[in-house]
Amino acid sequence: MSDKKPEEKEGPVQVLQTPVRLEYVFSAGQSASRLLGAMAKGKLLGQRCPVDGRVYFPSRGSCPQHGVPLDGAPVELADKGTVATYSIVRIPIEKVPLELPYVTVQVVLDGADTVLMHLLKCDVDKVHMGMRVQAKWKPREEWTSSVENILYFEPIDEPDAPYDSFKEHI
Amino acid sequence: MRDVAVVAFTQAPSVRRDLDRNEVEILIPVIHELKQKTGLKNEDVDFVCSGSSDYLAGQAFAFVSGLDAVGAWPPVCESHVEMDGAWALYEAWVKIQMGYAQVALVYGFGKPSMGDLPITMALQLDPYVLTPLWPDAISLAALQARICLEKGVCTERDMAERAVRDRKNAKDNPFAQVKGDFTVDGILKDPFVVSPLRKHDCAPISDGASAVILAAGDRAKELCKRPAWIRGFEHICEPLDLGVRDLTRSRSTEIAADRAGVGKKKIDVAELSAPFTHQEILIERALGLDDGTRINPSGGALAANPLMAVGLSRIGEAASRIWDGSANRAVAHATSGPCLQQNLVCVLEGD
Amino acid sequence: MSQIEKALTAPHVIEYTYKRSLGPVLSQFFTALRERRVVGVRRKDGTVLCPPKEYDPDTGESLGDMVPLKDTGVVTSWAWVAKPRPQQPLQKPFAYALIRLDGADTPLLHAVDAGSESRMKTSMRVRARWADTTTGAIRDIACFEPVD
Fold it and tell me: Containing domain of residue C73, as a range?
């Protein structure tokens, strides 16, 4: 046996802590790389489903409804859209660039058929479905291949979109 | 028991590192080709089951995105196992046996190149006394190999012969990763990776995916001229702790083979998913294979090892030999866990 | 598929610490390690498992009869790791080994610091080298070393 002294008695060991650290090189893949590459140029690229023509943004390379590859020419979308639904956040979350309370929204971008989850900077009492909003971008010199180029959305002075135009997203 | 057959199989080429596609993008063309081959649409498939590992992807619930490659609207009946797709196929087979499905789509996919695979594999070990020591998968297999060598279960030449055979067979397999003509004496001169294992003793690390269609009765005959009927199917598990197992044989494979009826008649073709050469020897013996069986015509796991799909691919490859008439009775094997802890045996027959 | 283009890649690190409850058998094993002692557990047939288990791996019977063991033992198999990874117990070439401690019937896995592969041999005798600080974990044994 070792001649080293036993540790101080601290009662039986009842819990074991097991640290795990795993390092990966993560690949965005074809679809997200195209999207993020376009982001660096301030463009929003969607992909059209060859079966029903719906435009996905963001696209993950396959139509999750029909299971067909989305490998046709990308569709450029506006950075404006309509609030399909929203939630008001009153607890702090790390790295969110807005002060509490703030709004998270699902936005249907003009030209897209899917919703984008994002932040909305506005008076929380004013937010409503159908509200027209536009992306607030970081300064151009700070753009990278990241969705974080868009800081949040902001309301714009346009009449509300009709309910029928976004009802399938709520 | 219902008559259930493997009727179609597709796979992605196994590559060491598919840096430009994510897991789902590797899977999309595999599923797409399978649907095109069979003419099946989502509404024709009653059950979808997959095998993958979130630790390989480095993302919690990464397996959910696999469904993007299938399409899930209208909603589909679906399940997932955090195991090789061969076990997903077992679940689908049970589902069909119970009468809940006629046609099932099964897939497995994995992209181990994103992380340090031998270390990622340490997470499947006992979290109290093993994982904190980070024994990599190759070291654990090397411990087993040394016991086999020192107890005379096999020799380094026997092991090298498996590598030479599998790599030669893989020359005819466009999806294989390690292939070519080698000599036993030549590769025995290579240095050890983790002694006593050399590079040729270890299956490659492969990114890949594969998919299979299972169908019951008349539906199988409609989808395939010569269905590969599943006539025996079992999987058996041993304790995780290497210290309490006999590492010189694969007891779980022996039991699974017995229950699946492997030895009842001659086996024409065997497709084995042993990731190390000495393990291939142990599996051959546990299955009772002899010179009358063509072993690993595809090259087996030693030629292409897309983790989480490699076992499913063995079933697909074995079925392919039934379809083309080159075999009438075939056995496929899949494994999981350290040093052949858990083993699956599937017997396929033509009409 | 259309032409495959070069994809964007990024490093991605996952780090987390699990806290695991031990239960009575492993609690005694790890408490002993903290005191630089090793214990095993006796099965009904008299054989001793180390590392100990809550249940008999063959019969599933509950186990709890703890047995003190020596921190010396014999190597039953080994694998030579020429290029250790950062997580592994030693940062110089070493062996992973199955070590049957004196008084036990089953081997436990650990590292052996033998200096060179030529000093490793199945059936060689080894002794635990204890860590300077012990916390109640398997790495309270820093590694094993050959007994000349």
Answer: 23-146
